[in-house]
């Protein structure tokens, strides 16, 4: 059988791989049953559903003809690197990394760095919209987590907040 839509075929394989990983990981927990669900019940069902969706998408990609064949384009390394780096930096700045001598910089600084680095993943980077987005995310996060949920974690760097 010939692949008629590469994008859909590989998307289906990705869904199936993630679904199988979730289902397999769920077996490390108590599954339970429908009346008394254990902690592994939902990840198992999620994994099964994702695997079924992936199989359906991959099957459709091999059966239904598309106009251009939807070839897979070149791999987008720049967005991948910047998005992953922004998440790593967020975690490091939020909690610090004492083994490397990096102090915790707090939620506000971590959100701004996350926003700036993730914005560099796009084709064009503009400071004003990025800083506006960072401000909105920082204020919203402060209201949701610190004020609303009363979570106790460092908001500002220790040299600012004390």
Nearest-integer average pLDDT: 91
Number of domains: 2
SS element count, helices: 6
Task: Give the low-confidence spans.
Answer: none
Number of strands: 0
Gross morphology: extended
Which strand-content bin applies to the residues?
under 5%
User: Main sheet, how many strands, which sense, barrel?
Assistant: none
H/E element sequence? HHHHHH
Structural class based on helices, strands and sheet pairing: mainly alpha
Note the gap between the termini: 66 Å
Gyration radius, to the nearest Å? 22 Å
How helix-rich are the residues, as a percent range? 55-70%
Transmembrane segments: 41-63, 75-94, 100-120, 127-149
InterPro entries: DUF1468
Keywords: Membrane, Transmembrane, Transmembrane helix
Protein name: DUF1468 domain-containing protein
Task: Please give a structural write-up.
With 162 residues, the protein is mostly helical. The protein has two domains: 6-63; 77-161, no CATH class. Helices cover 63% and strands 0% of the residues. It has six helices and no strands. The protein has helices spanning 6-26, 41-63, 77-95, 107-119, 127-148, 158-161. Helix 1 (6-26) runs antiparallel to helix 2 and helix 3 (77-95) packs antiparallel against helix 4 (107-119). The longest helix has 23 residues, at 41-63. 17% of the residues are buried. The model has no long low-confidence stretch (mean pLDDT 91).
